[in-house]
Amino acid sequence: MHDLRTRTAGLHIFIQVHIELDPEMPLMQAHAVSDAVEHELCAAFDKAEVIIHQDPAGLETASEPSATAGNS
Questions:
Q1: Starting at the edge strand that comes first in sequence, how are the strands of the sheet with 12-21 ordered?
Q2: What's the confidence (pLDDT) of residue 70?
Q3: What is the per-residue pLDDT across 22-51, written as a single tens digit (0 to 9) for each?
Q4: Cα(19)–Cα(23) distance, integer angstroms
């Protein structure tokens, strides 16, 4: 996981996190993992709004494409 962000607005709690999953994982399995993480977070933080971003593992270490790529 990375980019964990939490905030409150009034009585509301917001939790946002990126989870890294095997890029070869089937979509249905990736959703099941994400749903399990969301369930655990909601159990720990009652009434929190949880947003989970699913990223392929290794994305953080991948180099960013240059801004001029494809503009030749």
A1: 2-9, 12-21, 49-56
A2: 52
A3: 999 999 999 999 999 999 999 999 889 999
A4: 12
State residue 68's pLDDT score: 46
Cα gap 66→53, rounded to integer Å: 24
HEC string of the chain? CEEEEEEEECCEEEEEEEEEECCCCCHHHHHHHHHHHHHHHHHHCCCCEEEEEEEECCHHHCCCCCCCCCCC
CA proximity to 50, closest of 68, 67, 33, 37:
37
Query: How much of the chain exceeds pLDDT 70, in percent?
Result: 81
